[in-house]
C-alpha cells in the first residue's frame, strides 16, 4: 500500500490541536474568550459590507446555493455568514455558543433588517444531530473546526445535518503577520502560538483521505479594525497564554498606532472555501 | 505533521520509474488507442475544462494558451475553438500527427504543434508568453515536479492549470493490482495538492466527472501497452484485461466515468 494512504490525518489533527492548546493557560475558556472578542471580530467581519461573508457566498452561489437554500452555520460568530447569506437564501440557522457573539448577530441583523434566521445558542458538540438530520442544503463553518479535537466526528455530524453540501472556510495563509511580530517582540522567541501546521492543507487532506472530493475557491477579502479593536484583539489573544501587563499593552498599542492610517488597521486576507457533497461518494461509511 | 511529510520526494519516487518507461516512443505506440478514446469521447474532458475555465474568467477569446503534453489534442482542440492561439507541446511524433489531423478536421488554423518534450523547451523563449498554461493528465511524466511547476509558472503571464485524475477508481485499481502494475492514482492528486501548498501556491480546485468512451479494441490496447511497459503480457494477463474491458463495455464501447481535479491559480509574478 502506498505510504501516504497510511497517514493518519485525524491523529495529525489531534496532535496539532494539543500543541495549540498547550500554548494556552489551562483555565482559558473558548466561550468567554469569544464573547470578549465579539466587538472587534464583528467590526472585522463587517468590513466592506461583510466582504468576507459575501465572497464566500459568491463562491458558492449557483454551485451549491440558490434562493431556496436552507443553511446552517456552525459557529456563526457575529453573523459573518448570517447577514450576507440571509439576504440571498431562504433561511439560515446559526449555531453559536458565545453569548457575546449571539448579541452581535442580533445587533447586526437588526441593523441590516434581516429576520430569516434562527439562533441555536449552543456549542456544535451539544447540538442533537438527530434533531437536525438532513435538514439543510448546506452546512457551513468558518474557523470553528479548530476548536474540535475530534474534528472528523464533528465533520461527520455536519454531513449528517446536510442533505446537500458541507463547506469549511479556512484562512489560506500560514502566517499571522502582526501577531507573529508582536509575540516575538514581547517574548523574544519564535514560538508559534497559532497552529503548527498549515491548517488548510491539513483539513483538505483529511477530507480527501476519507473519500470526499472537495472543491476549493480561493477568495480575497479585507478586514478593517480600529487601533482599539486590534489592541483588544491581540491583548485577549495573548492573555490566553501570558499575563498581559500595562507595559505589554503599551507595546501592542504603539505597534498598531504606527501601522494605522486614520486610526484604521487594514488587513488583506485570503481564505480557502472548501466544499463537498455530503453524501453519495464511494466508501461513504468510512 | 503534514508539513514534514516529504511530498516532493514521494512524488519523485512514485513517478521516476513510470515516467522513464513512458517514453515518447511508448506514447507514439499508444497514439492510436488514445486518439480513439479522445475522439470517441468527443473530447469530453477538454470541453468540460474549457467551459469551467471560461465561466471562471481564466480562459477567453483574446488569450494565448500553452498546452503541455498535448497528446492528440484533448485540450488543444476544444480550447482552440475559443482562444486566440493554442501552442501544443507534445513529444510523441504519432500524437502530433493525430493532433494535426484533428485540428484540420475541425478547421482550426490557430494551433501550433511543437514536437518536443516540455522539459526541452527553452525557458527564455516562452517566458511570460502565454495567458494560460495548461497540463492535463500528464504531470506524472515529471518527477522533478517543483521545477516543472516553476517553469509552467514562468511561461504564464496569467493563469496556470493542471488537470489530474482524483478520487477512488476501485475497478481499475483492482485490475492494475491483479496485473502487478503500481497504479498511483488516488493519492497522486493529494501529493500534488500538498506540494502546491508547500510552494505557497493557493489554487482553486474543481472536481468534475468526465466520460471516457473508447472502442473495446482501444481499451484492450491501452491496458496491454500499459502492462507492456513493465513486462511482456502473458496469456493469462491478456485474458484478465479482456474480461475487465468486456464486463465494462456496452455496444462495443468501454465506458467509464472518471473524476478529474481541475486545479488553477494565478501565475506567480517573477517566478
The global form of chain A is globular
Low-confidence stretches of chain A: none
SSE arrangement of chain B, N to C: HHHEHEHEHEHEHHEHHEE
Largest sheet of chain B: 8 strands, mixed
Mean pLDDT of chain A: 90
Q: What class would the helix/strand composition of chain B place it in?
A: alpha/beta
- State the helical fraction of chain A: 40-55%
Number of helices of chain A: 9
Describe the structure.
The complex is a heterodimer of chains A (286) and B (271). Chain A has helices spanning 9-22, 30-60, 82-86, 99-112, 151-161, 177-187, 199-209, 227-239, 246-259, and strands spanning 70-74, 91-95, 117-120, 136-142, 162-171, 215-226, 264-277. Chain A is of the alpha/beta class. Chain A has one domain: Rossmann fold. In chain A, helix 8 runs antiparallel to helix 9. The model of chain A has no long low-confidence stretch (mean pLDDT 90). Chain B has 271 residues and is α/β, with parallel strands linked by helices. Chain B has a single domain (2-169, 183-213, 257-266), classed as Rossmann fold, CATH 3.40.50.150. In chain B, strands 1, 2, 3, 4, 5, 6, 7 and 8 form an 8-stranded mixed beta sheet that branches. In chain B, strand 2, helix 5 (93-105) and strand 3 (111-114) form a beta-alpha-beta unit. In chain B, helix 2 runs antiparallel to helix 10 (216-228). The two termini of chain B are 28 Å apart. At the A-B interface, helix 1, helix 7 and strand 6 of A face helix 9, strand 6 and strand 8 of B.
Task: Looking at this protein, list some descriptive labels.
heterodimer; A: 286 residues; alpha/beta; Rossmann fold; seven-stranded mixed beta sheet; 9 helices; B: 271 residues; eight-stranded mixed beta sheet
Quick recap:
Chain A is of the alpha/beta class.
Strand and helix layout:
The complex is a heterodimer of chains A (286) and B (271).
Chain A: H1 9-22, H2 30-60, E1 70-74, H3 82-86, E2 91-95, H4 99-112, E3 117-120, E4 136-142, H5 151-161, E5 162-171, H6 177-187, H7 199-209, E6 215-226, H8 227-239, H9 246-259, E7 264-277
Parallel strand pairs in A: 1-2, 1-4, 2-3, 4-5
Antiparallel strand pairs in A: 5-7, 6-7
Chain B: H1 7-21, H2 24-40, H3 44-55, E1 64-68, H4 76-80, E2 85-89, H5 93-105, E3 111-114, H6 123-126, E4 130-136, H7 145-155, E5 156-165, H8 170-179, H9 186-198, E6 204-215, H10 216-228, H11 235-247, E7 249-250, E8 253-266
Parallel strand pairs in B: 1-2, 1-4, 2-3, 4-5
Antiparallel strand pairs in B: 5-8, 6-8, 7-8
